[in-house]
Amino acid sequence: MKSIQIFRTVAQVRQWRANALFAHQSVGLVPTMGALHDGHCSLISQSLQDNDKSIVSIFVNPSQFAPHEDLDAYPRTVDADMALLNQFPGKKVDAVFIPKVSEMYPSGISTNIDEQRGAFVAVKGCSEQLEGSSRPQFFRGVATVVTKLLNAVTPTRVYFGQKDAQQCVVVQNLVKDLLIETTVKVLPTKREANGLAMSSRNAYLSEETKQKSAVIYQSLVNGERFYQEKSQHGPVNVGEILARITDTLNDSTGFDIEYIALSHPETLEDLEVVEPGVGAVVSTAVRVPREGSSQQTRLIDNVILH
């Protein structure tokens, strides 16, 4: 069986993509920061199903981290990631792009935004709220690296998970507004058996904390069920939905709720009522304790109301 190709440079990726283009083959891209888990695997499986060729990128992107955040501590497990990809059942990905920071940022990069030089991409209007309110440079970094990857690979389709709901909205607007010829595919959140959204940051959590953290999704589901019942009779007040969510989350000792928000599914504007047929994104960020450490791990999750 043909082995997975590993590319380190943009030039190598572009040559591979050109060969696929000449052969009239579609290409799917799954961007990741590594520490691959079943959530990533679901995206990869869909790409393999949809496209003639599939490529996974593994790159921990410095520009989306602030100086005080966990860039150095972020899990880097390239050997384990490659082992997982090589053991993938059935059809395997064709290539993996693992660039150095200097390849992706030729002008250099600092996590201090005032020291950064070069070209960056900002998607205004949907980047400043929710995750963006506590991590102001995060989506600027995401939009920049996604633009770079799309320019390097020019994929037919690119794949993201619904867990990162705001990221999906940012990328969809990025592709639309910059006239990038690719289709953004958003797939449902992959979850642990207890409902906890799969995330590379779950590697920081003990099994006990993972079990306790299941309450995050349970609280969102309580809000979703309330909406489903009430929406049969018309618009539903956001405050009532939030009350059902916080009633559950507030019972979790040691958890710090950063935000719970109900936002328009396309603009991410705050809502006062949820209109059936328009719906909303119900999202939250919660900081949970790390075993044997004074630090916390920041977990995000969401559900979609229709």
UniProtKB/TrEMBL annotation:
A Pfam family reported for this protein in Swiss-Prot or TrEMBL: Pantoate_ligase
EC top class named in words: ligase
GO biological process: pantothenate biosynthetic process
SUPFAM superfamilies listed in its UniProt record: Nucleotidylyl transferase
Keyword tags: ATP-binding, Ligase, Nucleotide-binding, Pantothenate biosynthesis
Listed EC numbers: 6.3.2.1
Highest taxon of source: Eukaryota
Catalytic activity: (R)-pantoate + beta-alanine + ATP = (R)-pantothenate + AMP + diphosphate + H(+)
CDD domains (UniProt xref): PanC (cd00560)
InterPro entries assigned: Pantoate_ligase (IPR003721), Pantoate_ligase_C (IPR042176), Rossmann-like_a/b/a_fold (IPR014729)
Pathway annotation from the record: Cofactor biosynthesis; (R)-pantothenate biosynthesis; (R)-pantothenate from (R)-pantoate and beta-alanine: step 1/1
MF GO annotations: ATP binding; pantoate-beta-alanine ligase activity
HAMAP family in the record: PanC
Assigned protein family: Belongs to the pantothenate synthetase family.
Name of the protein in its database record: Pantoate--beta-alanine ligase
Protein's organism: Candida tenuis (strain ATCC 10573 / BCRC 21748 / CBS 615 / JCM 9827 / NBRC 10315 / NRRL Y-1498 / VKM Y-70)
